[in-house]
Amino acid sequence: MSEFPGGPTPQAASQDRRQAAPRTTALESRHLALGARMVDFAGWSMPIQYEGVVAEHLAVRRTCGLFDVSHMGSVFVRGADSPVFLQRTLTNDIGKAGLGRAQYTLLCNDQGGVVDDLIVCHLEVDEWLVVPNAANVADVVDVLGGLAREASSAGDDVEVEDVSEEWGILALQGPRWEEIAAEVLPNANPGRFRVERFRSAWGDGIVSGTGYTGSPGIELMAPAATIVGLWDGMQAPLDAVGGMPAGLGARDTLRLEMGYPLHGHEISAEISPLEAGLDWVVALDSSDFPGSAALREQAAGGVRRELVGLRGRDRRPLRDECPVRDAAGNEIGTITSGGYSPLLERGIGLALVRVGSVPASVDLRGRVIDVEPVTPPFVDI
Fold it and tell me: What domain range is 369 assigned to?
């Protein structure tokens, strides 16, 4: 997750206005009661912050934060041939995702661009849960559904069920997450990138040792009524450890500190996973999936641009789409995600630049500031 798959920058969120009224998660009334600042993100009314982005960011790093990420998708893939189907559809080697494991992977287009990055949870021998990003749920469902229908017509046993409208997702993130989870899910501790089913006083669901913050924690996926019960049940233990609800603003600054990609920024239909440094989730030798031929050609010829981390010299945030220059002043690329690191107390960013170039400065809205290239993550937690 994509979470993982799926956090916005505040700027992008505020600009992402739809003509129709945004959809609401089952926790809308809770967010409003907590005084959350709500924004329209990918057609959903979502909390961008409660007490403040920096406070929520630091809570996740030091104690714990609780996120509503129910705008993300929940898509089941089932059937005896589901492992084979996923192997020839997604980029990672699904054979390495044994029973009870979660895996980070990509869905690509035929040109090698990224339709979306996903978390896939292996629940049963013939059952998987795929979690896409909010803005891409419809595209992912269309692709998976279309390929599943083709496979079924050829005699394969595979089906795709989208339950995104009926389910929700919570992310409990931070070093003290276990104390909070123990109050509502006393036996749920799946381990990093492990997945299991849970039972609670409010209903059953799925828990995975995943997250999009870099801090330890879990994500809970369940029907909406169960998600509401879990959210309410975790408020008192969350407060007891000095934690707090956290919005999408902190989720974005947290993922940026770790150098995690965001679809539409570091990866997109026009940016390949090889350019984004995600070759470790592209198993070109394992199978033929959409885009594999284009990616093999790119791998053989070498990429012309690459993703790098940039660290500023002071507190000024780096900004999306600002030009990046080398020591001679030549433009060598563009910032894909920029912001401020509350832990480092300085500006940071990710940039797509020409291979072999060395970033030295950024044109920050008319002011040239010095930066130094670094290899993410920006912080050691």
Answer: 304-374
Measuring CA to CA, how many Å separate 79 from each of 82, 86, 141, 367?
5, 11, 16, 57
CA dihedral (212, 216, 221, 224) positive or negative: negative
Q: Crossing angle of helices 248-258/53-62, nearest 10°?
A: 60
Same domain? For 66 and 169 the reply is yes
CATH of the domain at 351: 2.40.30.110
Q: Residue 381, SS3?
A: coil
Q: Rounded to whole angstroms, what are the CA distances from 234 to 21, 28, 181? A: 30, 16, 7
For residues 202 and 310, state if they share a domain. no
Query: Do 174 and 253 share a domain, yes or no?
Result: yes
Q: Hey, how many other C-beta atoms are within 10 angstroms of the C-beta on 62?
A: 17
Distance CA 85, CA 82 (A): 5
- The rounded distance, in Å, linking the Cα atoms of 47 and 31 is 7
Distance (Å, rounded) from C-alpha 174 to C-alpha 206?
Answer: 19
Has residue 13 got a pLDDT over 70?
A: no
Strand 361-364 and strand 367-374: pairing? antiparallel
pLDDT tens sequence across 48-84: 999 999 999 999 999 999 999 999 999 999 999 999 9
